[in-house]
Structures are given as structure tokens and as C-alpha cells.
Design goal:
Elements (H helix, E strand, L loop, with lengths): L1 E2 L12 E13 L3 E7 L4 E7 H4 L1 H8 L6 E10 L7 E12 L13 H6 L1 H4 L3 H23 L3 E2 L5 E2 L10 E5 L2 E5 L4 H11 L1 E9 L12 E10 L3 H22 L1 H6 L4 H6 L7 E3 H11 L13 H11 L3 E4 L22 E6 L4 E8 L4 H10 L8 H8 L5 E7 H9 L20
Parallel strand pairs: 1-2, 4-6, 7-11, 13-14
Antiparallel strand pairs: 2-3, 2-5, 3-4, 5-6, 8-10, 9-10, 11-12, 12-17, 14-15, 15-16, 16-17
The chain binds 4-amino-1,4-dioxobutan-2-aminium adenosine-5'-monophosphate (4AD) and magnesium ion.
């Protein structure tokens, strides 16, 4: 008899198999017991019929406890009524690990309670579906960048540079020196692009953001491609192709998970059609002003969640907002050739209220200009000598971007809050478990 995973049930219809499982829920009458089972690959139902298995096994099945682990043997059948499509008619149970009273019962629990039990909450169906989609998006990321000639260059986590400004830095000691946890690997990817042409990083990044919103994590994962001999316009094309590829990957490989989340694939299909609309920051300001919904909003402000939501809702698609005011963007962005108040950059705003999922730009190449900007940003020039070297030895036009993985997951899964898009979220008031 084969030992299989639940996910492979379709290949074993009418065959006898053995599966290692946990019990998530159960219901029974005097004659039949329905055991809800999971094994980490899918969820399905086991059926135990007293007249078939006998008194003793039936009693054992009825007394199984939530999250108890065991092997079941039985025959796979189709089950058109379930999301999964198959069930197992159980003929044997072999117990493995007992379970105490499990804190997460099938009834509703509050978010704080669930977050305190995140290590167990991960076992539930919805969390399973989100983590599988996360995994698919990571898989698709590697596939996309490898197919397109990028190589992965890992950026350090401990660093002395602060690309995104000094207000949200996590300080730490580095022996007798000061250091920070990385906010972004970008500056190192720029070095990588000058060495290897097209590179990307994928790693954890840290922002000591005091904001407690449904879009902010303290620790999040970012994918940061950087490309030599490239202008912003070509970078936007890569960005939209990458985002559409992520959505397509989820559509191709996660239909079961989308069903578990009640996420309509039709909605996602719209996001695979390219190109995405592009508007300038100036146009965005005008649209927001004309809507009359944003008070006396003026040119120069950064957008918050209501503005981003309005803009993307207008198009019902991801939308690039290009060329923001220089004053609200980081030091490294390329100045506009004919205007000194904006920089060559774009944020990609996701529809359905999810806000910015990508920030990117063409990079400034003039070392003199960069030195001034570094000073203006209140950064220590000596810490950026190596970065200025990149402009001293064969500098070329280059551009890159950063996609926040958890923002993108929250959008694609259609979830309310970013905290469920990462296995163990770090939030303003939470570092447990
Ligand atoms: O716009 P950001 O700050 O851009 C950068 O860090 C650039 N250095 C990227 C680059 O050009 N290589 O961040 C990029 C993305 C945002 O669009 C957002 O998706 C995500 O990172 N992000 C966060 N996600 C979760 N929690 C937070 N606190 C986030 N801050 C940014
Ligand atoms: Mg940004």
C-alpha cells in the first residue's frame, strides 16, 4: 500500500492508501463518523462507517481529539461536494501523537488571541491557503528573474547605510560601532548591476515604522531587481510583466487555495492584461483635487492610503504613478531632465484598496549631485564612498525597484490585513511568538 499525501489523492481513486494526518474537526452519529483531516498539503474528509470497521475502531475514531496525529488507511473516493473533490473511506487508524485541549476551536476567536497562537493558527485552512500562495509567489519570482537573465545577489542585513532615510531605522550595535538592520538592499544591488548587469535580491528588510496600519509590517520581505543600461520606461515594463507573472502563477497553480479564500479568479485575471495605466504625479494630484474628496490637497504632498485607494479604484487596475516631487523621495533618484522639482520614479498602486506594492526609480548617476543629496538627507558621506565609486568607474544609466512581498500577497489573496501574509508577523506591538 502506498503512503501518500492528501494532495495526491486524485491519482489514487479507488485505491487503498496510507496517510499521516491531524484531525481538525469531526462530527458523528451512532453509525457514521466524519473526520476532517489535514496533512499540510490539503484538507479532506475521512469517513468511518461502524458496520464496516466494527465497534472498536469506530469508538476510537469518535474519540479522536482535535489536532491529534495518526495514520489513516483507507480507500480514496471522489467527493464532488467538497472544495477538494476527494475523501477517504477509512479502514484503519494508527495513533501517533495525543493532543491536549486545543486552544483554537472551530468557533470564532478574536485577532489578538489568534496572533498569540500564531504558531498553531498557521495550521488552519485560511492560513494554509495564504502560505501556499506566498510560496507560489516566491517560486514564480525566481522563475521570472532567472528566465529574464537576472542573477540573485544577496544584500547584507547588517549595514551602515540608510537608503530610505533615517527616521525608520533599526539601530543595533556592531561590536563597538553602530549599525542598522537593512531597510532595503538597493544600494548593494546597484553595485551588483554594475558587476553583473541584471541582478535581484530577495530578503528581509526592517522599518521601525511607528504606524499601525493594515499595510505596515516592521519586518517584511522585499524583491529588489536592479538593471544596468536601463532607463525608467524599460524598468516599468519589467515591473508590470513581473506583477502579471505573479498573478498568473497563482491562477495556474493555486486554484484550490483561491477557493479556500473565496478569492474570485476572474478578478485576478484582469490583472494579467498589460500594460497597466501610467499617470504622472501631477495628473494624480489633479484627479484627486477634481474629485473634491480630499479637502485642500496640494501639489507636493505624499499620498496616504485614501489617495492611493482612490487612484487605483479609478482604473480598477494596478496603476503606475510617475515622477513624484523630489522633496518626498530618497536621495538616489534621478533628477528630471527639464524640471528640478520632480524625480524619475514610479510607485505601482494596487487596486481594491491595497495601495503601493512597488517603489522604484531610475538612479542618479552624477557623483557631484549624489554627494549633495546625501548631505541634504543628513547622511554621513563617508558611509557612502563605496556607493559613489559606482559612479566613478564606468557609470551607466540604471534603474530598479522594490516589490513588497507581503503587500503583494495581501492584494492577490484579497485579505484584509497584511499580518496574515507572513508566517510570524512583526508588528508595532508584537514580537511573540
Ligand atoms: O518604496 P520603498 O521604501 O522602496 C525602497 O525601499 C526602494 N529602495 C526599492 C528599490 O528601488 N530597490 O519600499 C518598496 C516596497 C513598497 O512599495 C512596499 O510594497 C514595501 O516595499 N514596503 C512595506 N511592506 C510592508 N511593510 C512596510 N512597512 C513596508 N514599507 C515598504
Ligand atoms: Mg515607497
Amino acid at each position: 500500500m502506498d503512503t501518500i499525501n492528501i494532495i495526491d489523492a486524485k491519482n489514487h481513486v479507488d485505491q487503498e492508501v496510507k496517510i499521516g494526518v491531524w484531525l481538525t474537526n469531526k462530527r458523528s452519529s451512532g453509525k457514521i463518523a466524519f473526520l476532517q483531516l489535514r496533512d499540510g498539503t490539503a484538507y479532506f474528509q475521512g469517513v468511518v462507517v461502524k458496520s464496516v470497521v466494527g465497534e472498536e475502531l469506530f469508538k476510537m475514531a469518535k474519540e479522536l481529539r482535535q489536532e491529534e496525529s495518526f495514520y489513516v488507511t483507507g480507500t480514496i473516493h471522489e467527493d464532488a461536494r467538497s472544495h477538494f473533490g476527494y475523501e477517504i473511506e477509512i479502514s484503519g487508524i494508527e495513533k501517533v501523537g495525543a493532543s491536549e485541549d486545543y486552544p483554537i476551536t472551530p468557533k470564532e476567536h478574536g485577532v489578538d488571541f489568534l496572533m498569540d497562537h500564531r504558531h498553531l493558527w498557521l495550521r488552519s485552512k485560511k492560513q494554509f491557503a495564504i502560505m501556499k500562495i506566498r510560496n507560489e509567489m516566491i517560486r514564480a519570482t525566481y522563475e521570472f528573474f532567472n528566465r529574464n537573465g537576472f542573477i540573485k545577489i544577496d544584500a547584507p542585513i547588517l549595514t551602515g547605510s540608510a537608503p530610505e532615510g533615517t527616521t525608520e531605522l533599526f539601530h543595533t550595535k556592531y561590536f563597538d560601532r553602530d549599525a542598522y538592520l537593512s531597510q532595503s538592499g538597493q544600494l548593494y544591488e546597484e553595485a551588483g548591476a554594475m558587476a553583473y548587469g541584471k541582478v535581484f535580491s530577495f530578503g528581509p528588510t526592517f522599518r521601525a515604522e511607528k504606524s499601525k496600519t493594515r499595510r505596515h509590517l516592521i519586518e517584511f520581505w522585499m524583491i529588489e531587481p536592479e538593471m544596468a543600461f536601463m532607463h525608467q520606461e524599460q524598468s516599468l515594463e519589467i515591473q508590470e510583466r513581473y506583477v502579471a507573472f505573479l498573478v498568473q502563477g497563482v491562477l495556474d497553480n493555486c486554484q484550490y487555495e483561491l477557493k479556500l479564500l473565496n478569492r474570485d479568479p476572474k478578478v485576478l485575471e484582469k490583472y494579467t492584461k498589460l500594460p497597466y495605466p501610467r499617470i504622472s504625479y501631477d495628473e494624480a494630484i489633479k484627479m484627486l483635487q477634481d474629485s473634491g474628496k480630499f479637502g485642500d490637497l496640494e501639489w507636493g504632498v505624499d499620498f496616504g492610503s485614501p489617495e492611493e485607494t482612490y487612484l487605483a479604484e479609478h482604473f480598477q487596475l494596478p496603476v503606475f504613478v510617475m515622477n513624484y516631487p523630489k522633496a518626498i523621495k530618497p536621495f538616489y533618484m534621478k533628477p528630471h531632465p527639464t524640471r528640478d522639482d520632480v524625480v524619475i520614479c514610479a510607485d505601482l498602486l494596487a487596486p481594491e484598496g491595497y495601495g503601493e506594492i512597488i517603489g522604484g526609480s531610475e538612479r542618479a548617476v552624477d557623483p557631484q549631485y549624489l554627494t549633495e543629496q546625501i548631505k541634504k538627507a543628513g547622511l554621513n558621506e563617508a558611509d557612502y564612498e563605496w556607493y559613489l565609486d559606482l559612479r566613478r568607474y564606468g557609470s551607466v544609466p540604471h534603474a530598479g525597484f522594490g516589490l513588497g512581498l507581503e503587500r503583494a500577497i495581501t492584494w492577490i489573496t484579497g485579505e484584509e490585513h497584511i499580518r496574515e501574509s507572513i508566517p510570524f508577523p512583526r508588528l508595532l506591538n508584537r514580537i511573540y511568538p
